[in-house]
Amino acid sequence: MTLLVISPDYASHLFPLATLATAWRDARERVVVASGPATADIVASFGFERVNLQLGRGSNPGVIRAEDQPTGEDDALRGFFDATRIGMIETLSFQAQARSADLLWNPVETARAVQRIVREVDPQQIIVDHLAFSARLGLVSGRHRHADVVLGHPSALPVAGEVYGFPPRWPTAFHPDRRQMEELRTLCETVRDSFTEQWNAALAQLDPRAEPSTDAFAETGDLLFLNYPAELHDGSRTALLPPHAFIGSAVREEAPDAEVQTWLAESQTPVVYVSFGSFLSVRGDVLARVAEALRGLEVRAAIATGSSDPAELGEIPRDWLVRGFLPQVTLLGHSALAVSHGGNNSVTESMTAGVPMLLLPFSTDQFAGAAAVEDAGFGIALDPNTVTADELADAAGRLLALAEAGRDALDRLGTSLTGYPGARRAFDALALSTAGERLQP
């Protein structure tokens, strides 16, 4: 049997998708990944075959920098980064306005490229990133059965009156202005309608018999995978989802890192892992405030600076570990606290390791995800643009105390996620779907 995995040319997307595919590799099935050239080494590291497929202008093999992107994409990235410095509404508005260029890139040409790859690879099963809309157009119009994977919080798939790009929930520390919220929702509705028109125009060109969509952002494949634990999702919202499977988390294996292993063995002082992911590591000003807060606590910090200059952090204690990139999964396995932007990989990997979270969300589904973590009692969310170092230190101290006191619910969730890994859940769910058995909501 052959599995085809379709991924954008971004490490943060490919890593969880490739991790899911390891269940097929371990079952000695053939795995082919269709992605761009920037992530070719990642595909090779998993031992998969690769075919070339470009799904957008930009790419990111690990840490993204605007100056490394093609003309147009570089300015878009700078605009996004600038918006995050102003506030949440401005960031979400910027993302909404950029959505068509980001998510529906060369739809007809890309869709036909996907159909050509399907003919050549001849897969029996297909997994595609939910945000790869142009690729999914090719699968839909070619009538190829497939599962699409939501790699963010489940609210990235709107249901029951929700509008893509408009957070259905906010963490308690965020207090958006009502008028600005109304304007943002109106903007998101306008973008949704325009995006759906573009989807339908491309779909009609590819398959004139196809039924047009009423909301392209709500379209899914034959099966929906949610890279998120069902335990943290509102049951009433779960009931509104199309045929789906919560796969918990897709935690990748990492190569041994001698420097990190030595550092971990040097002390029993609690470790705090800090990372803002491949995009938002550009916010060195916020990383600096986190570092200032942690310097006053009895902890050792492991900080992944990404695209920020480590000099922005100020004085670095001698027993801290600061590098551009760090093995996140390895360090979370030894951490008492994780500080992050609330991206899906960071959150699900922290939950799998049973680590409480201090979240500083900046954009998209990070707000709803942070609210869910708060509701579960697994973390605290604060506004990255307004929070002070003292407030960060207080929140970190409370979460470290939680870790010391024991966290039965978080420990149980971590045990569940490690006992039945996401890759195995995806393999089993797709096998049932392929056999024609209906998955229970």
From TrEMBL:
<keyword id="KW-0808">Transferase</keyword>
<dbReference type="InterPro" id="IPR035595">
    <property type="entry name" value="UDP_glycos_trans_CS"/>
</dbReference>
<comment type="similarity">
    <text>Belongs to the UDP-glycosyltransferase family.</text>
</comment>
<dbReference type="Pfam" id="PF00201">
    <property type="entry name" value="UDPGT"/>
</dbReference>
<dbReference type="InterPro" id="IPR050426">
    <property type="entry name" value="Glycosyltransferase_28"/>
</dbReference>
<dbReference type="InterPro" id="IPR002213">
    <property type="entry name" value="UDP_glucos_trans"/>
</dbReference>
<dbReference type="GO" id="GO:0008194">
    <property type="term" value="F:UDP-glycosyltransferase activity"/>
</dbReference>
<dbReference type="GO" id="GO:0017000">
    <property type="term" value="P:antibiotic biosynthetic process"/>
</dbReference>
<keyword id="KW-0328">Glycosyltransferase</keyword>
<protein>
    <submittedName>
        <fullName>Glycosyltransferase family 1 protein</fullName>
    </submittedName>
</protein>
